[in-house]
Automatic annotation (TrEMBL), chain A:
Pfam family, one: HisKA
Cellular compartments annotated: Cell membrane
Keyword Hydrolase applies: no
Species of the source: Kutzneria viridogrisea
Protein name: histidine kinase
Metal-binding listed as a keyword: no
Reactions it catalyzes: ATP + protein L-histidine = ADP + protein N-phospho-L-histidine
E.C. no: 2.7.13.3
Positions of the HAMP domain: 191-243
Histidine kinase domain mapped to chain residues: 258-467
Molecular-function GO term, any one: protein histidine kinase activity
SMART domains: HAMP, HATPase_c, HisKA
Keywords carried by this UniProt record: Kinase, Membrane, Phosphoprotein, Transferase, Transmembrane, Transmembrane helix, Two-component regulatory system
From TrEMBL, chain B:
Protein name per UniProt: GerMN domain-containing protein
Annotated source species: Kutzneria viridogrisea
Top-level taxon in the UniProt lineage: Bacteria
Length: 470, 157
């Protein structure tokens, strides 16, 4: 509970700390000064009162008969004032109001000490000064002996208390005056600390958002300035390594593009030769024909690989062009399946017609790749669902095979990733899904891989309906 | 934590108002009562002797001086001050000096007689709570250098 009361913000904490320190300091100063002032006030008042009493008694004693009778005691009492009691052996002066206040300790002290004694007491919240004194007989040679007459008197100290309360009150109001000043100072101090912190935070945010040029100019030479310099250095090194990495990436891409481009020319020649070889293969002997057919198949694979590499290079370089036109998605998919002879193998579930603005060729590439994979790696029946909402169109390809293993899922879209390392010689280039994903992204859509509840692998292509924004 | 705050509050409250105290000494007790006044006369060996006159109270210096001037009465002491019809003595007390204006001349008394007056006046002063190093000046009716002397009592030092 108390932990919750403690403010969390740096500004609030500074403010509270400042105000606490100020108030404590002011209270301590005010308390000590008021304390010493009140002590001095009480002491001087007490001294004045006792001196007055001694003077009053001393003025009348030479005229007092000794041993005193009742009249003498009453005379003495009248001289000292009301609230006074004078005793001598068994005699007591009349009229001793409020003398119930006189304590036994004071009486004992008067009996034993042979000098004037005082005591302050508080009864029902009112402060009183008790004064008790014996009256002594002084011999001509100066020796003093108790006369047996004792005077007890009570004085009200309420006035003094009121003065002290006034002192304390003014001390409190002075302390209260210091509080707004402390708040102002705390706000200034908090501002001077928090401004650099806020600037640092903004810079860090910009860096996190990808603006690697963001820097904070360091001010002053304090710890915050050091932190700023460190942050700037960090941003600098991150920026440097990012630039280096980007350059390396660009180099690698250009290399792949160059290689595939350079391979194309000899490959087209090779393709032409292989086609000639294919026309004459029937007349060969069995061994030679098998070799020739293998060369033909591998050459075709090589051609496809180079074409895929070039496509990937174009997509990476951002030079791939999107030829958008309004097409019927269902029609394009059905045509693609028909062209590849897959209509009998795939169960197509789709509405009559979904019109969408997109690149017909690229959609065909995606669907062909997904369905081809399903037929090649999964088990029939393969199911293709097309559905649409107001904003999006989903094309879902599901097979009935064992599905994608858990460890493969994060890598299915990686280039040249082979789920089964033993099965290296598949007809695919290893770039199909990567190209499909890039094509989907080119449309502002997405391609995700997963497993259906039935166990088979499921790929979902999501395309947005309004392509105008892309 | 709560205890610290409580202690602080108690401490702050303790700083306010008039605090009760124990019994403390407040100085010398008043004095001045006496069964009578002490007058100084001279015995047969020409020595100053105190005589308690039981008046019931100490009284003022002028009363004591007046009593002294009236004489020792029936006792074996005698006075060295010539008896007078007028016994009124005017007493003026200034800081350090008690001035007595006696209705006599320097020829009405011996030096021991002056001591009688000085000792009686000083005795009353001391018994009434006064300081013992007080000086006494006895002024006579006729001008004389003796009037300006500040005297002390040989018995009260």
């Amino acid at each position: 509970m108390s932990r919750r009361l403690w403010p969390r913000g740096l500004r609030a904490r500074l403010l509270v700390a400042f105000v606490l320190v100020t108030v404590l300091g002011a209270v301590a100063a005010a308390w000590s000064s008021a304390g010493s002032a009140s002590t001095a006030l009480v002491t001087s008042t007490q001294q004045r009162l006792t001196e007055t009493i001694v003077g009053q008694i001393g003025a009348i004693t030479p005229q007092l008969t000794y041993p005193p009778d009742q009249g003498a005691l009453d005379l003495l009492r009248a001289a000292v004032g009301t609230d006074t009691l004078v005793t001598y052996q068994n005699l007591r002066s009349v009229d001793g109001a409020d003398l119930g206040l006189v304590t036994d300790a004071l009486r004992t002290a008067v009996h034993t000490q042979n000098q004037l004694v005082t005591q302050r007491i508080t009864v029902n919240g009112r402060p009183w000064l008790l004064v008790g004194t014996p009256i002594t007989i002084t011999a001509p040679d100066g020796t003093r002996t108790p006369s047996g007459i004792e005077v007890y008197t009570v004085r009200d100290l309420t006035d003094v208390e009121q003065q002290i309360d006034g002192l304390a009150g003014s001390a409190v109001s002075t302390a209260a005056l210091a509080v707004p000043l402390a708040v102002l100072l705390a706000l200034l101090a908090a501002g001077s600390v928090l401004r650099p912190v806020r600037e640092l935070r903004d810079t860090a945010r910009r860096l996190a958002a990808g603006d690697l040029d963001a820097r904070t100019p360091p001010q002053g030479a304090d710890e915050l300035a050091e932190l700023t310099v460190t942050l700037n250095e960090m941003a600098e090194s991150v920026q440097t390594s990012m630039v280096a990495m980007q350059r390396m990436q660009a180099d690698a891409r250009r290399f792949a593009a160059d290689v595939s481009h350079e391979l194309r020319t000899p490959l087209s020649t090779l393709t032409a030769v292989v086609e000639v070889l294919a026309t004459t293969a029937d007349g060969m002997e069995a061994d030679a024909r098998e070799s020739a057919q293998m060369a033909i198949i591998e050459t075709h694979r090589l051609v496809r690989l180079v074409e895929d590499l070039m496509e990937v290079s174009r997509l990476d370089a951002g030079t791939a062009s999107l030829r958008v036109e309004e097409v019927d998605v269902v029609g394009v998919v059905r045509d693609g399946l028909r062209a590849r002879g897959w209509l009998d193998l795939v169960e197509l579930v789709a509405p009559e017609e979904i019109l969408l603005r997109l690149d017909r060729r690229r959609l065909d590439v995606i669907v062909a790749n997904l369905v081809g994979n399903a037929l090649r790696h999964g088990e029939p029946p393969v199911r293709l669902d097309i559905s649409a909402s107001r904003e999006q169109v989903w094309i879902e390809v599901t097979d009935s095979g064992p599905g994608l293993p858990e460890h493969v899922l994060p890598h299915v879209f990686d280039r040249f990733y082979k789920a089964d390392s033993a099965r290296t010689r598949t007809p695919g280039s290893g770039l199909g899904l990567a190209i499909a994903l890039e094509n989907a992204r080119l449309h502002g859509g997405d391609l995700t891989a997963g497993n259906s509840s039935g166990g088979g692998a499921r790929f979902v292509l999501r395309l947005p309906r309004d392509l105008e924004d892309v | 934590m709560k205890r610290i705050w409580l202690a602080v509050v108690v401490l702050l409250l303790a700083g306010c108002g008039v605090q009760p105290s124990w019994v403390t000494a407040g100085g010398e007790a008043p004095t001045g009562v006496a069964p009578g006044v002490t007058l100084y006369f001279v015995d047969a060996h020409e020595q100053l002797r105190p005589q308690l006159r039981p008046t019931g109270h100490l009284g003022a210096i002028s009363e004591a001086a007046a009593l002294l001037l009236t004489g020792p009465g029936n006792s074996d002491l005698h006075t060295e001050i010539a008896s007078q019809a007028v016994t009124q003595v005017v007493v003026t007390t200034t800081p350090g000096v008690i001035q007595l204006l006696v209705p006599l001349t320097i020829h009405d008394m011996s030096p021991l007689g002056i001591d009688q007056i000085v000792c009686t006046a000083l005795g009353v002063h001391v018994q009434g709570g006064g300081a013992r190093n007080m000086k006494v000046q006895v002024r006579f009716t006729q001008p004389t250098p003796e009037s300006d002397k500040q005297r002390t009592c040989p018995l009260i030092r």
